[in-house]
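Risk register update: the risk of archive-format incompatibility is retired. Evidence:
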Amino acid sequence: MKASRQTTLRSPIVITGNGVHGGQPVRMTLHPAPAFNGVTFLRTNLANGHERLLEARHLAVSATALCTVIGDEETGSVATIEHVMSALAGLGVDNVCIEIDGPEVPILDGSAAEYVDAIEQVGVVEQAAFRRVIRVLRPVRVEMGRAFAEMRPYERGFRLDVEIDFDTAVIGRQRMVFDLSPAAYRREISRARTFGFMRDVEALWKAGFARGASLDNTVALGDDGVLNPEGTRWPDEFVRHKILDAVGDLSLAGGQILGAYHSFCGGHRLNFMMLEALFADRANYAIIDTAPRREVGHAEAAVAAAAFAPTIN
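Archived output:
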């Protein structure tokens, strides 16, 4: 395996906007962070001036309905983290502390493009520490109705094979196989926007979702096709966005994955279930140090594994 060092941002990034579900304005600052910090969210502006630090790990996930949420409403949470997480993972940024003063990450244009542009504007810097990679050792599968997801060993990097099947001619059945790298992510995935059906809007509003959705941040689908005047950015923008979401959700593993992910009719819930199943058995994965000529031994692997599954307070 090629040696690689951990990375962080060269300087802070400030992003403002509204959440797609709550519709509330929010200010978010992405700060450089030290090696082994991973991605953390510092939720500010809570009741009585409180703050809460949340690790962006699968054990912190509290909800997966239409978006990924970490934390809880009582003590502080952050919703719709998948797009910013996807941008960080897609560009290979390991360590960031995200300070956010509201309950939901800004939706921006509905893709990860603006996050990618902001990250590339300030730049990414290497750190002294080498990366640790999560190597998939054996197949793991989860199912939810007709939907399923699998994680398999794959030694060439992180491959995503994502397929969707919607009962509408506008989308239909789409599939894309994608090998993650910063250049490919930027070019093929980062601009794919979230999408939704107009027939579902009233029910979503009643359930507390999509209050900030508009044609500026969502590909809206009506009975006769796409309602956005500009149309889609690719004919298969829908499956590309599912890959974007999967990159973000699966980065909650806490490190880069060395393996192949295949999903059919998946979403946030299935991505989360995949991580739960992967980490449920130590025989499913190994923590590999990418430092030259060195692989984590059994005793050290146990310590490293614990680091990937922290207790969330």
